[in-house]
Amino acid sequence: MAAMRFTATLCVLLHIVVICNAGVTSSYVRKSEPSIDMPVGSFPPPTGNNAPEQVHITQGDHVGRGVIISWVTPLLKHPNVVTYWEAEGKHKRRAHSTITSYRYYNYSSGYIHHATIRNLKYDTRYFYELGTHHVTRRFSFTTPPKVGPDVPYTFGVMGDLGQTYDSNQTLEHYVSNPKGQAVLFVGDLSYADNYPFHDNVKWDTWGRFVEKSTANQPWIWTAGNHELDFAPEIEEYEPFKPYLHRYHVPYKASQSTSPLWYSIKRASTYIIVLSSYSAYGKYTPQYEWLSQEFPKVNRSETPWLIVLLHSPWYNSNNYHFMEGESMRVMFESWFVENKVDLVFSGHVHSYERSDRVSNVKYNITDGLSAPVKDPSAPVYITIGDGGNIEGLANSFTQPQPSYSAYREASFGHAILEIKNRTHAYYTWHRNQDSEPVAADSTWFYNRFWYPMDETSSSTNMV
Ligand SMILES: *[C@@H]1O[C@H](CO)[C@@H](O)[C@H](O)[C@H]1NC(C)=O
Ligand SMILES: *[C@@H]1O[C@H](CO)[C@@H](O)[C@H](O)[C@H]1NC(C)=O
Ligand SMILES: *[C@@H]1O[C@H](CO)[C@@H](O)[C@H](O)[C@H]1NC(C)=O
Ligand SMILES: *[C@@H]1O[C@H](CO)[C@@H](O)[C@H](O)[C@H]1NC(C)=O
Ligand SMILES: *[C@@H]1O[C@H](CO)[C@@H](O)[C@H](O)[C@H]1NC(C)=O
Ligand SMILES: [Fe+2]
């Protein structure tokens, strides 16, 4: 491993890189160690009686002028107020939260607050304060630039994070990179359901663990299977109960009828979030919503069309192999017709990037069922490698299928830098390297404005 790290360092120093056209299975082999959760006490509640904790923000409207601010007060409902002001201004405004709480088996949540603040200025830094004079906690965020075709914007991408020592490294790497302005999170947050009785205390510790990022920049949430918390054996019959109480999203702003699927515009992107674990067959609410969603995307306004969904459609790992297949069958032709640029998924605890392929010819009599290169198809990225308690998915199918451009069983995160309407630079960072090292990087060319072949632009640090 030391030699491997030395080679990687040398590559950086000498700019020796491997240009990859054929599919690559990384030769980087991570030591297989058990993934261990950080002790519950690693992220204690903030000091002070009833101090607001587990602070997180997400986009609060369709265009980026709203923010949903969420937090938990453990003992008392009040104060249920957030005070916020422009960093350059003095005028303070206040917004009240709606308060919810829930029981899960024998767990009772604290008071969960959600306050939506609206009509903010674009591209502006704001401060906000929670709590009262005894325990006031102050945070800040920056609103995105006005929606438009050539607005640069940089996203972090993470999934399947959990709360192990590996998760801590993933988050630390992301936070230490000043580039990321918002996170696209592809599902599976706390992994509380891996504990007896789905110990919901793990939802609280997770909220405190990620706060150093989630309080200061929006995380765009996607629901994964670990958000289901469906447990009839302990009489918990309501799917997504903890998740839906704790994580609010602006679904009504995109005419969705469920927080599990929705869309937002942010800078030069149009982001569609889907639910792998809600009905998507023909005539279902999610199907009907998505059918009406694609025509609303105006690529002159938001050139970049990105989809987030938990269970990947193109996955050459033996873990969760073909679990995304039924959703692919339903929706892939729409993705190709509408020239989706990128699809990010999680679920599989490793990393994989596909070529632009589609597999939409098949009907039950023609026998055509192999993926083919397709310049109108998205690139599919599996990034369920946040580092949760279940460990790495380190068993790939052999040989590497032709659709798979790069795959590696390591934990990490990605950065997507949208430069303008034609170009975006993408880097995936494995945890074992220092944060500035990109193990897999490539230019993405926009499918609407510049549908050129990108395959020669990728670089791997193996
Ligand atoms: C919930 O029940 C489990 C199993 O009986 C027990 O170990 C745990 O301490 C209980 N938690 C609370 C908050 O009562
Ligand atoms: C998590 O990472 C931070 C930053 O590197 C470190 O200070 C902290 O000790 C880590 N926490 C645990 C429980 O290892
Ligand atoms: C698409 O967006 C462009 C740029 O904002 C605008 O000029 C045009 O009218 C929009 N088209 C439609 C159909 O709304
Ligand atoms: C299925 O594919 C066959 C062979 O290409 C074609 O003849 C037939 O029309 C297709 N059926 C439908 C319903 O599209
Ligand atoms: C878009 O960004 C790319 C990469 O930075 C650059 O090469 C290209 O010239 C830019 N296009 C325009 C029209 O500015
Ligand atoms: Fe999952």
TrEMBL record:
Transmembrane annotation, as ranges: none
UniProt keyword terms in alphabetical order: Glycoprotein, Hydrolase, Iron, Metal-binding, Signal, Zinc
EC number: 3.1.3.2
Signal peptide: 1-22
InterPro entries in the cross-refs: Calcineurin-like_PHP, Metallo-depent_PP-like, MPP_PAP, PAPs-like, PAPs_C, PAPs_N, Purple_acid_Pase-like_N
GO MF terms, alphabetically ordered: acid phosphatase activity; metal ion binding
Pfam families: Metallophos, Metallophos_C, Pur_ac_phosph_N
Domain Purple acid phosphatase C-terminal, first and last residues per copy: 377-434
Keyword Signal: yes
The reaction(s) this protein catalyses: a phosphate monoester + H2O = an alcohol + phosphate
Occurrences of domain Purple acid phosphatase N-terminal (ranges): 52-143
Stretches assigned to the Calcineurin-like phosphoesterase domain: 154-351
Necessary cofactors: Mn(2+); Fe cation; Cu(2+); Zn(2+)
Family note: Belongs to the metallophosphoesterase superfamily. Purple acid phosphatase family.
Name assigned to this protein: Purple acid phosphatase
Organism: Actinidia chinensis var. chinensis (Chinese soft-hair kiwi)
